[in-house]
């Protein structure tokens, strides 16, 4: 397939504007390098990695691909300074930051020649990311899995709003899982797409097989945005979800919610495969997925579907 050129492929030096989201417990070096080798941009999700683990994943990723790859850094991470230092030392070319103020790290990363992209859920935060000097933004809509914005703006509204608000390239995320949804996002003005849920359902994702199977069985309405009083997160419904939902319905405060949440729930669910007690973060488009594929096949299939959809007359709909 012919490489494609636009602002996102040129910024990252990749063949197709297809980006795999950096997800805790799912995206290590295997997934990131497979996506990058296939012509997309693979991202290591550092939020679930201790600093020495992150370094190991970066080193393995560099050995597995000579293509560009990125690291996602959630700013809530407790040892963020150590992660940033490792990213600089290991000369990671691209960083995606999320869940925090883009001013904090953008300048110092850029001084080291690193391209910086920030994940936002509103045009207000997109403008802040642009002012902070970011090279691009990810506009992540309400449909997305995991951490999400409080305002519930869907991708259909968020993408054009962010495209209008900033001059830097906009990468769309939330509800995108195939070539047609990718085309829809690009028609709304995005210059690329980031997909998480689609890549959880890949052979290389480090998520537990039981979690991947649960994702395959998800139907419409099976995920919901929870814990707005703490950090809003879209979860797949299970026993833990119901505990949180019941507490929220009876008006539980942040302390009670924190107690119910406890520690390492995400690891328990997504990495250890405890489908009852664990936290299962996944996007709405899980309802539309029905196969677990190698990451390279996902990239190639989406790019081929995108090109077919681009030529399809709408009178056929
Ligand atoms: P918890 O506080 O419940 O647990 C911490 C988890 O992170 C444990 O499983 C722990 O592994 C692991 N961990 C990795 N590095 C460290 C460290 N330096 N200090 C302590 N624990 C560490 O947090 P969560 O599991 O809810 O979230 C962990 C991180 O992931 C946070 O930074 C959060 O912001 C981020 N996150 C990002 C998301 C995204 O969308 N990008 C979504 C959800 C969370 P172990 O059990 O082996 O000790």
Could you name the key traits of this structure?
alpha/beta; 317 residues; binds NADPH dihydro-nicotinamide-adenine-dinucleotide phosphate; 8-stranded parallel sheet; 3-stranded antiparallel sheet
CATH architecture of the largest domain: Alpha-Beta Barrel
Number of helices: 14
- By secondary-structure content and strand pairing, the structural class works out as alpha/beta
Mean pLDDT: 97
N-to-C span: 27 Å
Low-confidence stretches: none
> Biggest β-sheet, characterized?
8 strands, parallel
User: What's the number of extended β-strand segments?
Assistant: 11
CATH level 4 superfamily of the largest domain:
Aldolase class I
Query: What is the class of the largest domain in the CATH system?
Result: Alpha Beta
What best-fitting shape do the alpha-carbon axes yield? globular
Topology as H/E string? HEHEHEHEHEHEEHEHEHHEEHHHH
Radius of gyration (CA) equals 18 Å
Structure report:
- This protein is an alpha/beta fold.
- The protein has 2 domains: 7-207 and 289-311, Aldolase class I (TIM Barrel, Alpha-Beta Barrel); 209-284, no CATH class.
- It contains 14 helices and 11 strands.
- The protein has helices at residues 7-12, 29-37, 51-64, 80-89, 106-111, 123-131, 155-165, 179-187, 197-200, 209-216, 239-249, 254-261, 265-271, 295-311; strands spanning 18-20, 42-45, 69-74, 94-98, 115-120, 136-140, 146-147, 170-173, 192-195, 223-226, 233-236.
- It has an 8-stranded parallel β-sheet. A 3-stranded antiparallel β-sheet has the order 7-11-10, with helices on one face.
- Helix 3 packs parallel to helix 4, helix 8 crosses helix 14 (295-311) and helix 11 packs antiparallel against helix 12.
- The structure holds NADPH dihydro-nicotinamide-adenine-dinucleotide phosphate (NDP).
């Amino acid at each position: 397939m012919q490489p494609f050129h636009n602002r996102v492929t040129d910024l990252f030096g990749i063949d197709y504007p297809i980006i795999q989201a950096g997800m805790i417990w799912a995206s290590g070096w295997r997934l990131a390098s497979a996506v990058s080798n296939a012509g997309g941009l693979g991202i290591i999700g550092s939020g679930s990695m201790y600093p020495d683990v992150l370094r190991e994943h970066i080193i393995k990723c560099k050995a597995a691909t000579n293509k560009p790859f990125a690291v996602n850094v959630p700013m809530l991470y407790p040892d963020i300074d150590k992660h940033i230092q490792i990213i600089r030392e290991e000369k990671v070319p691209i960083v995606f930051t999320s869940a925090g103020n883009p001013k904090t790290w953008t300048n110092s990363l850029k001084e080291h020649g690193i391209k910086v992209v920030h994940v936002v859920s509103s045009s207000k935060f997109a403008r802040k990311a642009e002012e902070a000097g970011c090279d691009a933004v990810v506009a992540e809509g309400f449909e997305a899995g995991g951490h999400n914005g409080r305002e519930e703006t869907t991708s259909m509204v968020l993408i054009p709003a962010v495209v209008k608000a900033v001059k830097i390239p906009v990468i769309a995320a939330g509800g995108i899982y195939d070539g047609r949804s990718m085309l829809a996002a690009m028609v709304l003005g995005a210059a690329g797409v980031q997909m998480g849920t689609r890549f959880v359902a890949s052979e290389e994702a480090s998520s537990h097989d039981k979690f991947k199977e649960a994702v395959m069985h998800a139907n419409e309405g099976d995920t919901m945005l929870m814990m707005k009083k703490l950090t809003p997160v879209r979860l797949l419904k299970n026993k833990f979800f119901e505990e949180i939902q019941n507490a929220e319905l009876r008006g539980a405060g942040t302390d009670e919610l924190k107690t119910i949440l406890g520690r390492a729930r995400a690891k328990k669910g997504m990495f250890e495969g405890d489908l009852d007690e664990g936290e299962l973060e996944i996007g709405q488009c899980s309802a539309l997925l029905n196969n677990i594929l190698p990451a390279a096949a996902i990239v190639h299939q989406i790019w081929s579907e995108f090109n077919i959809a681009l030529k399809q007359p709408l009178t056929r709909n």
